[in-house]
Amino acid sequence: MNMQVKAAVAAVCFGVLSVAVANDFEDSARVVSVNPQVEQVNQPRQECRTEYVTTQRQPQRSMGGSIIGGIAGGILGNQVGGGNGRTAATAAGAIAGAIVGDRMENNTGGGAVMEQQPVQRCVMVDNWQTRTNGYAVTYEYRGHTYTSVMPYDPGQRLRVRVSVLPLP
Predict the structure, then answer these.
(1) CB neighbours of 8 closer than 8 A, spacing ≥ 6?
(2) What would the pLDDT profile of 24-47 be if each residue is shown by its tens digit?
(3) Positive/negative CA dihedral, 100, 101, 104, 110
(4) Are 30 and 144 in contact, with CB atoms under 8 Å apart?
(5) What is the reported pTM?
(6) Vertex 144, ends 140 and 148: CA angle to 5°?
(7) How many other CB atoms sit within 10 Å of the CB of residue 90?
């Protein structure tokens, strides 16, 4: 191939490429309106609070009063009577002393003790939130109106890419 033919082929190829690239360009369009696209989202959360509950507690019974009362009653019963009567009086004194000693030590005015205990109560509550998930943008370019959903609010002007294609 001769040098002139190569130069002509290169010029034609360069011309075709520059025409193909020149068919896409950027321009700006006037924004007519922007409407946020919102959705309602529920993110439940746990709410807890502490309440105080009244409970009854039975006091622990002690055996010390019964033992001491039984010994004291047995000693006193042993002082009364003689022979078999003394043995019966000792037993009766021990029983009576044990009963009296138990009542003296364990009689706290009714038995049950009232107490306040903290109890934590938790419930799940709805937590509805409004979220913007895009913007419906209506814009005008060279006398035509277009609408597109975008991830951001473009403001008053919008950069657009314009493609020019020949019709077949």
Answers:
(1) none
(2) 899 999 999 999 999 999 999 999
(3) negative
(4) no
(5) 0.43
(6) 55
(7) 19
Query: What φ, ψ does residue 150 adopt, rounded to 5°?
Result: -125, 155
Contact 64, 105 (CB under 8 A): yes
For residue range 106-120, what is the model confidence (pLDDT) as tens digits? 665 555 678 888 999
Residue located via tokens 């002393």:
97
Tokens in use for 137? Answer: 């943008």
Bridge partners of 160, per DSSP, are: 27
In contact, 136 and 1? CB cutoff 8 Å? no
Alpha-carbon span 121 to 67, nearest angstrom: 46
**Nearest alpha carbon to residue 28 among 131, 160, 139:** 160
Q: Which amino acid is at 94?
A: A
d(CA 137, CA 147) in angstroms, rounded, equals 5
